Amino acid sequence: MNSGPSSRTNLTSSKKARNIELRLSMSDKIWYTIKNNDIVRHVKLGDRSVITSKLPIPEWADRGQPLVDLYDIAWLAAPSRPRVRASARNIRAVDLFCGCGGLTLGIREAARALGCGFQSVFASDINRCAQDLYQRNFRPLVFDGNPIETNIDGELGARTTPCEEAFCSKVGQVDILVAGPPCQGNSHLNNYTRGNDPKNLLYLRAVRCAELLRPPTVIIENVPGVLHDRHGVLQRADEYLREIGYHVSYGVLPMWKFGVAQTRRRMILVASRVLQDVSVDSIVRSAQLPERPISWAIGDLLDSYKPGDPFDGAATHAPVNQARIHYLFEHGLYNLPDEQQPDCHRLKPNTYPCVYGRMWWNRPSSTITCGFASCGRGRFIHPLRERTLTPHEAARVQFFPDFFDFSGLVPTQLHLAIGNAVPAKAGYVLAMPLLMAMLDNEVKQRDTESN
């Protein structure tokens, strides 16, 4: 086993890096300062007063790193949920196909940054494990574990059905609708029904929900392969949302460009009834940050490893696979040579060269999937330890903070919940400009009415 830096070893950053941070992090609207032992985020909303929110700085954190990095690592390492100021304005959200709530988590943090409370008014997912996690962490007013068609069963443009009338009555007014329809049918890892899976049509259930509720903001995420779906669900969603009054943009969101320490990419559709020049590309540019390595996200967890622990322990591997892991470390390698690969990879061409691969400490992680506990399902071997990632480490790379409650799950459930999630930073980055535009519009309307 290699001896890497201890959990108190942190990245150092130059003054040049701090200048990059100021230039790229929407410094005209969002900036950061240190006050005593807190890192403070400042957000300017239109011509109104600046909203501040703060987090305690971990003792081990490097205060010389860019302040946006310091804020994010303080959030990830926070043992308890950050305080939310008392507010008369709650951001009301609906989350369809919610999983364990990665997007909701990011949107809740965006609401906190804008001085607002947050309420999940309706969430839906058929996975029992996801249901438990979401309800425990967000306490939605209504959670429905039935297929989405139970509540939203009408076609686009059709008269509202009785089920939909009941759904709208339960939900009421909504500020933001988010959805993560099943993506396996469009995944590049799916060699069977790729691009032609009937479940891909569930994407349009989110569009129908937007038609029913007419929220100011809609965010729908999926894998990039949805662009080539044979049902054309992405293109149909774009066209129909425009027909009913939304400004729409879609594009691929490269997570590493705004601070997620992995090479994950997702296809995002955003729609706004307020922001006319809505653009996924401009959202990415405005939130862009220098690339963060996996060491930034999990460096403090090196001494937290607990063999056998569901959250802080790693999977036990078959002797032959543990020998493959040892071979990489013994020879200082990051890719397993062909002669060490199992026959299923060695004797036939394959397009997954990263299997049995070791991560690099100074680079972003490869995409975290539900197979992160298996060295044979991707590049999931820890950069400094002869093991795969723990669920805690994978959660950090997926931008889930330590205060998120994953307790009570067995390892296989943790792998599915974490690997299938959307990094919370994506929800934050997408929601910030859209919610800012919505809140600014509300102020302008009130000013107009008062005059």
How are the SSEs ordered, and which strands pair?
Elements: H1 15-24, E1 30-35, E2 38-44, E3 50-56, H2 67-76, E4 90-96, H3 102-113, E5 117-124, H4 128-138, E6 143-144, H5 162-171, E7 176-179, H6 203-213, E8 217-222, H7 233-243, E9 247-254, E10 265-272, H8 280-287, H9 294-298, H10 319-330, H11 343-346, H12 391-397, H13 411-419, H14 424-450
Parallel strand pairs: 4-5, 4-7, 5-6, 7-8
Antiparallel strand pairs: 1-2, 2-3, 8-10, 9-10
Helix pairs in contact: 3-14, 6-7
Mean pLDDT: 89
Tell me the helix content: 25-40%
Major beta sheet, strand line-up: 6-5-4-7-8-10-9
State the CATH topology of the largest domain.
Rossmann fold
Reading the helices and strands in chain order gives HEEEHEHEHEHEHEHEEHHHHHHH
Strand content: 5-15%
CATH architecture of the largest domain: 3-Layer(aba) Sandwich
User: Which structural class should the secondary elements be placed in?
Assistant: alpha/beta
Q: Number of DSSP strands? A: 10
Instruction: Write down the Rg.
Output: 22 Å
Taking the sheet with the most strands, its summary is: 7 strands, mixed
- By CATH reckoning, the class of the largest domain would read Alpha Beta
* Number of separate structural domains: 3
**So what's the overall shape?**
globular
Q: Superfamily at the CATH H level of the largest domain?
A: Vaccinia Virus protein VP39
